Amino acid sequence: MYIRTRNIAGGTLMTCKDCGHAISVNKICESPIQAATDMLKHMAAHNASRAFAAVEPVMRPEAEAIIPVN
Ligand SMILES: [Zn+2]
User: Do the beta carbons of residue 12 and residue 24 sit within 8 Å?
Assistant: First the structure.
């Protein structure tokens, strides 16, 4: 998730709350579609790593016990 912040030079930035990655609003104004794509891709990367973290605990060794062995 990006939040709007200001840097010491008075520029406005969109900063990623999760990792601090920042995109200047000037850059967003210059190429809004490119900037929006970059931000969406960036957030998708965070979401993917979170989804993986949520799925991981399900993969326990006990799962092998339900596989029928003849
Ligand atoms: Zn980030």
Answer: yes
pLDDT at residue 7, rounded to an integer: 86
Ligand 1 centroid to residue 60 C-alpha, Å: 29
- Cα separation of 66 and 32, whole Å? 52
Q: Note the maximum CA span of the chain.
A: 71
Global pTM?
A: 0.63
Taking the centre of ligand 1 as the mean of its atom positions, its distance from the CA of residue 22, in whole angstroms, is: 8
Confidence of residue 14 (pLDDT cuts 50, 70, 90): very high
Cα distances (angstroms) measured from residue 34 to each of 13, 29, 30: 16, 10, 9
Q: How far is the CA of 68 from the centre of ligand 1 (A)?
A: 43
**For residue 38, what are the CA distances in angstroms to 34, 62, 67, 69?**
6, 40, 43, 49
